[in-house]
Design a protein that fits this description.
Pyruvate-ferredoxin Oxidoreductase, domain 3
């Protein structure tokens, strides 16, 4: 198996690190070599969060080189367009269409860019893009939005569904496991459309 590269991006507090832990756990449970790296500088203040997850028979570096990500999963659409140069030609995109205004926009110094989903769709005509927060609210907990998106991402990979269940058990607290499993299933349904 060649090395698969999954780039996960978002904003602090959205659960990108938890999602990348689950993704890494799935690959590890499948018996693959896994490397993961997280960048979350000012995440607690609403800054960018980026996780590189790489897996295969043998992986030598945790960082995905520019232009080599197979899949970009982004929990916020501005972050998706920011990290698009990391995705290889023919790569896949799963994105939450939610908008989280960066400080420069809330201060009025800049405008939130328009046409992001259209630009992403030009790159990946089969993009999976939907409002994960709304789906998470429907399943009972808005904090599961990233797990919804992870469910959609799972449809782009060939892992046994039972491995995803096992991985989620290691990544989310037991007391919220039921709602997270519902969120994941809702994401799988959206990813298959």
């Amino acid at each position: 198996m060649t090395v698969k590269n999954i780039l996960m991006a978002g904003v602090g507090g959205q659960g990108v690190i938890v999602a990348s832990q689950a993704m890494a756990a799935v690959a590890r449970l499948a018996g693959l070599d896994v490397k993961k790296s997280d960048v979350h500088g000012m995440a607690q203040r609403g800054g960018s969060v980026l996780s590189h997850v790489r897996f295969g028979e043998k992986v030598y570096s945790p960082l995905i080189p520019d232009g080599e990500a197979d899949i970009l999963m982004s929990t916020e659409k501005l972050e998706a367009i920011r990290w698009l140069p990391f995705v290889k030609k023919g790569g896949k995109i799963a994105v939450n269409t939610q908008m989280i205004m960066p400080p420069t926009v809330t201060r009025g110094a800049q405008e939130y860019p328009k046409g992001i989903i259209e630009k992403l769709t030009e790159f990946d005509p089969d993009i999976v893009a939907f409002d994960c927060l709304e789906v998470a609210k429907e399943v009972g907990n808005p904090r599961t939005a990233t797990v919804v998106l992870l469910g959609a991402l799972s449809t782009m990979l060939d892992f046994d569904p039972d491995l995803w269940t096992e991985a989620l058990k290691t990544a989310v607290p037991q007391k919220v496991m039921d709602v997270n499993m519902k969120a994941f299933a809702a994401g799988v349904a959206r990813g298959k459309k």
